Amino acid sequence: MKGTMEKREQNLELTIENVKKMLSTMNYGSITLVIQDNVVVQIERNEKIRLK
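Structure (tokenized):
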């Protein structure tokens, strides 16, 4: 049980770090988290580029 909780904590920390990096380089768009069995398994980035 303890190992599973540690893996979930590590998964959450890794997810947060990746989302922070994505947010710092995006101006417009969305970030989607794909979750399976209470674990983030994929992070999708959909960025829009606005032409003026």
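DSSP finds one helix and two strands in the chain. Residues 8 and 38 are 8 Å apart (CA to CA).
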